[in-house]
């Protein structure tokens, strides 16, 4: 991790496995998450400013549910939700307070027609100005 204003190396995050990292996100103050080809969510605590090498921290409490490489992730701080998406089309929405699954979305298998979402399924949008509350999703709603 570099300070872009002066070019100083602030932290070097410990590698967990020989796998590509596809995303690094700030979670909370002094806490970062990385995801990638190892299919895991790795937590780093950079609280100690004196350490340059930051060891990989605790395991993600929700386990490692992706069966393929995690290619993308995003975090909505106002809702406390983390979203991870893997190569096979699975999208998992996590509650960051409990580190448990909030919503698990799976891609429809080839050759099958998937049912329309139920009204009880929720979708949420995160904006910088304010978080919109989750609203019921209808069958014609594309998000």
UniProtKB/TrEMBL annotation:
Highest taxon above the source species: Eukaryota
PROSITE patterns: WD_REPEATS_1, WD_REPEATS_2
Keywords from the named record: Repeat, WD repeat
SUPFAM superfamilies according to UniProt: WD40 repeat-like
Annotated Pfam families: WD40
Membrane-traversing stretches: none
Keyword Repeat: yes
WD repeats: 63-104
UniProt name for this protein: Uncharacterized protein
Source species of the chain: Engystomops pustulosus
């Amino acid at each position: 991790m570099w300070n872009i204003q002066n070019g100083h190396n602030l932290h070097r995050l410990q590698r967990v496995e020989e796998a590509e990292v596809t995303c690094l996100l700030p979670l909370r103050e002094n806490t970062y998450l990385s995801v990638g080809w190892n299919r895991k969510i790795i937590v780093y605590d950079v609280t100690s400013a004196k350490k340059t090498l930051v060891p990989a921290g605790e395991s993600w409490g929700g386990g490692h549910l992706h069966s393929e490489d995690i290619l993308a992730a995003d975090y909505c701080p106002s809702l406390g939700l983390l979203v991870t998406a893997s190569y096979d089309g699975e999208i998992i929405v996590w509650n960051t307070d409990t580190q448990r699954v909030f919503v698990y979305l799976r891609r429809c298998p080839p050759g099958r027609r998937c049912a329309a979402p139920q009204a009880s399924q929720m979708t949420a949008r995160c904006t910088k100005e304010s978080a919109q509350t989750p609203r019921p999703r209808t069958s014609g709603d594309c998000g």
